[in-house]
Design a protein that fits this description.
This protein is α+β, with helices and mostly antiparallel strands. The chain has helices at 3-64, 148-152, 175-181, 187-194; strands at residues 67-68, 77-79, 82-89, 92-93, 101-106, 119-125, 141-147, 162-166, 184-185.
């Protein structure tokens, strides 16, 4: 093999090594950016539930003209003599092939089951795709009104667990999820039951 051929091969190898090093550097930069975006997304997801929960609580407080309680009270609102615990959820991704979004509520009775209330009001951000199926199509939330006794019997309700249901009422096949859907309630009904001039709880 001639010297000129060897030099060309060596030059090509050198160029390939430089390109390889540049690609590795670029790949590392992309991986770092992806890791940063993943961390940001994880942070957002962790705090999204709290943000939605507070928004739902404020909305319900205004709707019922109810008084918010301090965090140490064991419940969120005092409304017409009823201690209400409010849990909110945004629209969350769901891998189920029948349901593409879900609501999820955590710590229904707190981490140590210390919350004491009369009624649990679950609030899910209304899914536009199924709004016509909801009892209160104009409301920004879908509300569920459960007694303390019913809530305690739900799966994962205690010990800081998580309860979730799909946002399409026609795709809730389990008995426990159907129990929740049967307790769907409209804003007018909430006002009648727990508003300033309303009556007592439903007992459902």
């Amino acid at each position: 093999m001639s010297q000129s051929v060897v030099r060309r091969i060596e030059k090509s190898v050198t160029l390939l090594r430089k390109e390889n090093a540049a690609l590795k550097k670029k790949l590392k930069s992309i991986q770092d950016k992806l890791r940063h975006l993943t961390n940001e997304r994880t942070h957002d997801l962790r705090h999204a539930g709290n943000t939605t929960g507070k928004s739902a609580e404020k909305y319900l407080a205004r709707l019922l003209n109810a008084k918010a309680r301090p965090p140490t009270s064991g419940y969120d609102l005092m409304a017409n003599g009823q201690r209400l615990e409010v849990k909110g959820s945004g629209l969350l991704a769901n891998g189920n092939r029948y349901e593409f979004t879900k609501w999820a509520w955590r710590r229904l009775f707190g981490d140590s089951n210390s919350k004491r209330y009369d009624r649990l009001i679950l609030c899910g951000v209304s899914n536009p795709a199924f709004r016509a199926k909801y009892r209160d199509a104009k409301s920004p939330y879908v509300f569920f009104d459960l007694s303390n006794e019913v809530a305690r019997k739900l799966p994962h309700a205690l010990d800081g667990g998580q309860l979730s249901i799909g946002t399409d009422p026609d795709c809730s096949r389990s008995t426990d999820r159907q129990k929740i859907w049967k307790r769907q309630i409209t804003e007018k009904e909430l006002i009648k039951l727990y508003g300033k001039h309303g009556g007592g709880g439903t007992g459902r």
